[in-house]
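If your schedule permits, I should be very grateful for your opinion on a structural question. Please examine both parts with care and let me know of anything in them that strikes you as inconsistent. The record follows directly beneath this note:
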Amino acid sequence: MNAGRSAARVGCERGTREWDASMGREHGTRAWDASMGRGNGTREWAAGVSAAGVGIASLAMLGEGSRWSPASEFGPVLGRRRSAHIVSTWWGAYRAVMRVLVVEDETRTAALLRRGLVEEGFAVDVVSDGVDAVWQACEVAYDVIVLDLMLPGIDGFEVCRRLRAAGRWAPVLMLTARGEVADRIRGLNIGADDYLPKPFSFGELFARLRALMRRGAVARPAVLEVGGLRLDPATRTASRDEAPLDLSPKEFALLEYLMRHPGDVLTRTTIMEHVWDFASDATSNVVDQYVAYLRRKIDKPFGVSQVETVRGVGYRLRAGTGQRPG
């Protein structure tokens, strides 16, 4: 409890120095971050924010059942008005800290981003090159990543590609001065979730980040792979064991839907609702017909049976390579 008060008081009195999740590493001790409390179940560490022109990013330790509040610490130092402003902002950050990785090589822009995000209540880490960004994002479970495109070493496109290949699904917002449509398409197809060109409004940035966080870090690969099947929705290509598959648009859509639900039993009605539109007069027999078309192209030529019929229900795409027909 005393340690928590001391940390908050030093953060206020010094004002100019930011104490954040890297503080523990700077002092040669264990890493202190917002997730530590959830890990040990007894204490929570929350990042403060900069408010009323005073630089505050202290770490405050709150014991369970404690009646301590930031007002009791900040009031005597800053006065009631500043304290009230800090309390409302700080306490909101404490209650729902979101950890952000900023990848930006331009020092001034990185500092502005960090300051703005901290004031909004985010816990922020900053790296300045692509290699460090990949390492950091693979080591820490970030809620969202703000990624610049023009980076030393490897660019933002390659950073995003490597993260998705490594199974890191934190939402990525690409932030860059390159506003060409081709760049936006490329970034989104690689696996980015949003794109914001410079110059930008901090209000819009915050809103976009909050929207991305609501989606969560769920798996959403840019290229689908199930067993020996591989499908790229962006380039409209599909293959099995690297052999290209020649599919009609409807066959491609059916395979994509099956590959997005590997191992799940899908009813004919469910398949119709997602692969055919309302204007279509498709029936369950049409689903059976297109499944048969698909099997003749993706299973039989390769001696496997990956598209399985579940009698009386529908179809399932086996998560493995499929069984060879006897």
Observations:
- The chain has three domains: 1-95, 97-220, 224-317.
- The CA atoms of residues 185 and 234 lie 9 Å apart.
